[in-house]
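Here is one chain, start to finish.
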Amino acid sequence: MGRLLIDLRPVRESPAFRRLLAGSTLSAVGNSMTSFAVILQVFEVTHSSFAVGAIGIARVVPMLVVGLLGGSLVDAFDRRRLVLLTTSCLAVVSAALAAQAFAGLDDVWLLYGLVAVQSALSAINTPARQTFIPRLLRADQLAAGLALNRLSFQVMLVIGPALAGLITTAGGLRACYLADTISFAAALYGIAGLPTMRPHDDVGRPGLRAAAEGISFIGRSRILAGAFLTDLSATVFGLPVALFPAINAERFGGSASTLGLFTAAIGFGGLISSVFSGPVGHVRRQGLAMLVSASIWGAAFAGFALAPFLWLALGLLGVAGAADTFTVVFRSAIVQSVTPERFRGRVLAADYVVGAGGGEVGNIEAGTVGSLASPTIGVLSGGLATIASAAVISIALPAFARYIRQPGATEAPTAEQPMPEPDFGRKKKRSLRATGRRDDGLRARRTGATEGDV
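Its structure:
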C-alpha cells in the first residue's frame, strides 16, 4: 500500500519545498475563487454567454504574447526575485478586482483588462515558479515532487470552486475577491524562504533572440518535441469540454446538476490518481508511459461519447482525469530532466503555453466538429484522433518512445550548484574513444537517446 500512495519524501526532507507547496496550494485555491467570481460577475452584468467566453480571449492573447518572451526573463534574472515581484503584482491585480467589486463598478471592459494583466503576469510567474522544484529536490525525488505539485492542482480544482460558491453565497463577490487577495500572503511566505537562484553566466540578454534560442533548442530535441506534441494532441483533439452541454442535453436530460458532474468526475479521477501516484517515481520508460496515458485519455473520451448510462459516462470521465494526471506528471518530469539549466525558463514557458493554450484550441476544435457533424461524432473523433496521434508520434519520434529516465545525483542541487545536465554528446564521444562505434550504438539503443535527442 505504501508503494501505491503518493511519495511524501520531498515534503518530509525539504522544508523549502514544503513551504513552497503549501503556499502555492493556498494561493491556487484563492486564484480559482477569483476565476469563479469573474465569470459570475461578467454573466450577471451582461447575461451573455459570448461575453463570458470572451474572458478566455482576454486570457489567451497575453499568455501567448508574453509567455514565450517571458521565458527569456526567467533565464536571465534571479528567479526567486522575479517570482516575488510577479506574485506581488498579481496580489495588486487581485486587490483591484476586490476594489471594483466593493465600488460596484460592474464595468466589463475593466474586468477584461484586469484578467489580461493577470494572465500576462502568470505567463512569467508560473514557469519561473516551476524552475524551483529541480533546485530544491534531489533528481531521484523529482517525479515525486511533480506528483505532489499535481496533487496541489487537483485539490484546487475540487476545493476552489466549491469554496467560492459558499463564500459568494454568504458574502457576495466582494468576499470572494477579497479572500483571493489575502491568500497571496501564503504564496509570498512560500517564496520568501527560498535560496537565491541566480542565472547562468552564459545566458544572454532577454528578448526575441533569447526566446528564439529556446524554441530552437526545443526543435532540436526529439524528446522535448515528443513530450510537447503528445500533450498538445491530447488537449487539442481529446478535450471536448465545449460539447459537454450538448452531450448532456442529448443523452442525459440536460440538467445543470448533471452537467456539473461531468467536470467534477474528471477532477475526482485526477485527485484519486494523484493520491495513488507512488509508482510514478519508479517508471523508467517515461516517454512510452506518457504515450500510453495519453492514449488512455483519448480512449476514455471515445467511450464517453458512446456511453448510454450516466454512471458509465462519469466513470469514463474519471478514467480520463486519472490518465491526464499521469500524462502531466510524466511530461513535467521529462521536461525538467532533459532541459539544461540555462534553457529551463524558456522551455518551461513554452510548456506553460502548450498546456494552457492547447485546452482553448481544443474547445474550438470540438465545437467546430460538433457543429458540422454532431456532438457524439465530435467527442468520438477527438478521442480516436488522440490515440492515432500517440501512435504516429511513437513512430515518427522513436527516441521519445525509447526515452529512459536518467539517473540523478545523490545530493540535492543548490542555487549556485544546479542539477547536473544530461549531455549525451560528451558520453557518445567518450564511448567512441573507449570502445568504438559498435559499443556506442549499443549504448544509444539501450538509453533511447543520442546526441541529437537533447
